[in-house]
């Protein structure tokens, strides 16, 4: 079965609306996430103090929360902000970086998961660990394929009533009912830090104002996959990949996106 | 009326003295601000703990403070450092990022404003919000022209007895008595995160040892405008702009600066 | 006297093992350190909360600690993590950024030094200040040659029973018994922020699983020197240097490393 999904229409809406995206992300990802969001046409803001996080979340068009570098004040602010986003009807995205690595990560992720994110984005190890709420994976990098996390992703999507994206050589997106597989990207992408983290912000940008969270999440990953493929053609290694990727995201047009995209959609098993 | 301002002389002094610039800036800007300051010939240091911020501010040649990502300990350290800089006779610069967005930002900015910065650098929304001490603007990006903030900038400059720089397509600098308009830069600059934040550090670097704060601030913005214009000629998008901009700042010479600069100076209305 | 050191063998082992490197580093260096570690073939993770730092240090293959941007919670977590690394038999590296600049830095460094790092990496000013435990140097940049810190480095290496690396135009490594001098690199490297900080992470990556800490430290600096030299051939300034450097680190092979390396090893005086 193939459902009609038009990522280019979602990209066009993002370009027209320039959504304000509130990010509480890790200290490694801050700069690249801001640049990725600017390149694709959103307006990023990083606001993490408990004194203002909830106020700002209600003001922004969407929120992304990433547990990559935690500390108690930040976790409290993440919980405040996610609660405020929900109360204001704004979508929010959870990125469970290395959730299986320590007890503190599992507990922090559980607090956030209880606030029903509209979308979750992680690698296979993270999605499996989050679904099982048990230890697994050591660091932030995953060697498992996204496909190996399909069952976990579907279960998690049904649990939150939202979408789950698993990134890898082939990316998966599911809302528990449908499954999309997105081909593309480039082998250098896992060698560039925080590209995955920044993608979670991009998912938030596409969710802002989107009616269909599954389609919006697929559109975000589609743009990343095509821009990554294009950047790979101009990169001599992981260092030159990042500038090329930002240039490609910035230049990405509906025609190129549609022509390049390799997307399959099916019913969830 | 045109006053004689020679930005190239200020750049030459910076190159000769390699001023040590103490920055308490936001978490997104840290890396790019350090690279911008190194590229132009200053020596950057980021020191934010209350246990050492005042001691370091007295040691450095100038201080820049940016409220982009706040938390209580940081705000206290900013206040300590600004007070220490003043006590030691060192200039300091305030960058009021997104000051209109939340109550916490307005209150933090008010505490800092009371310590009379030698210069303030922001976009039009921020300068207007700071001058009016009231809510305005949502995020960190501004759509207003710098010119729309002229009245606010002049009022603010007179209030602090220092200079105010408003960046936009055409930049403004005023000390409440004179107004400089600086043309140049590139349309990609607002699509690269923290270029504005880093400029506030550059203003601090030019204020270090400068006799005339208005001229020093104009010189800082002049270098940015010309380097931005040069970088734009070699950039294929916002990703390749940043390396090109750092290369251009590093290579910037008196002759190029003077030949390229488009600067108008007039009396304040 | 020339001892047989084969950095290429150390690089090959790193490529085969992809060690997980736990870094508690400064806020400026986070992103570039992660990219440098990914480029050379390690798996970086930044974990600084006291709630998880010790647990993670025991899990990782090596730890690097950098005092560039301090605050009390972070210093406590650094001490916890270094203690846990020692208890688990994992090597750890100390980077004493600007240790001479403030009392807080000297005290924090003293707490860490008491936990016997396996290696220390700094510039000449930092190594001298750490060895003398007294004030010296203002900022993070050093104008002294590495050679001027030879005596301090040897004393410090004997004190910790580990290796000390002093970076400069010519780099020094000593374990108190032997001294290696490594030529190479590029004059632009001090104009790119946090390249030195990232090198301390690379030293940790080479120490992971290495039997001989002196050889492993030399191997880390050898890769940096050769990659820096190669990057310099393709860089138009400090902005384009960083992407070129990451590309060069990623592409670095045994043959190139061995052919390009200029290394002298002698007995310590």
Explain briefly what this protein structure is.
Chains A, B, C: Belongs to the Thz kinase family. Chain A has 269 residues and is α/β, with parallel strands linked by helices.
Could you please describe the fold and organization of this structure?
The structure is a homotrimer of 269-residue chains. With 269 residues, chain A is an alpha/beta fold. Chain A has a single domain, classed as UDP-N-acetylmuramoyl-L-alanine:D-glutamate ligase, CATH 3.40.1190.20. Helices cover 49% and strands 16% of the residues of chain A. The first copy, chain A, has 11 helices and 9 strands. Chain A has helices spanning 7-17, 30-40, 53-59, 72-87, 103-113, 124-132, 150-160, 195-207, 213-234, 238-251, 254-260, and strands spanning 20-24, 43-46, 62-66, 92-95, 119-123, 163-167, 171-174, 178-183, 262-267. Chain A has a 9-stranded mixed beta sheet, sandwiched between helices. Chain A is globular. Chain A starts with 6 loop residues before the first helix and ends with a strand. The model of chain A has no long low-confidence stretch (mean pLDDT 94). The A-B interface holds A 20, 27, 30-31, 34-35, 38-39, 43-49, 51-52, 55-56, 59-60, 73, 242-251 and B 26-32, 68-72, 98, 101-105, 138-141, 190-194, 236-240, 242-243.
């Amino acid at each position: 079965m193939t459902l009609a999904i038009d990522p280019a229409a979602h990209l066009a809406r993002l370009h027209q609306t320039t959504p304000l995206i509130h990010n509480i992300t890790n200290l490694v990802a801050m700069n690249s996430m801001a640049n990725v969001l600017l390149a694709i046409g959103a307006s990023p803001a990083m606001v993490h103090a408990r004194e203002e996080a909830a106020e700002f979340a209600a003001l922004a068009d969407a929120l992304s929360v990433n547990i990559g570098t935690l500390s108690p004040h930040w976790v409290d602010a993440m919980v405040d902000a996610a609660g405020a986003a929900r109360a204001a009807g704004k979508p929010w995205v959870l990125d469970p970086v290395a959730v299986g690595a320590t007890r503190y990560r599992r507990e922090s992720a559980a607090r956030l998961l209880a606030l029903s994110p509209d979308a979750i984005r992680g690698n296979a190890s993270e999605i499996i660990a989050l679904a099982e709420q048990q230890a697994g994976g050591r660091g932030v990098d995953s060697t498992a394929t996204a496909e190996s996390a399909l069952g976990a992703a579907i279960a998690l999507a049904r649990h939150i009533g939202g979408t789950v994206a698993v990134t890898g050589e082939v990316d998966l997106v599911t809302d528990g009912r449908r499954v999309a597989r997105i081909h593309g990207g480039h082998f250098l992408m896992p060698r560039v830090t925080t590209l995955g983290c920044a993608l979670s912000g991009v998912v938030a940008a596409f969710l802002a104002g989107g009616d269909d969270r599954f389609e919006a999440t697929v559109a975000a990953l589609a743009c990343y996959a095509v821009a990554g493929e294009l950047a790979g053609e101009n990169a001599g290694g992981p260092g030159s990949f990042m500038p090329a990727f930002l240039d490609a995201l910035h230049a990405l047009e509906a025609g190129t996106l549609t022509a390049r995209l390799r997307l399959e959609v099916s019913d969830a098993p």
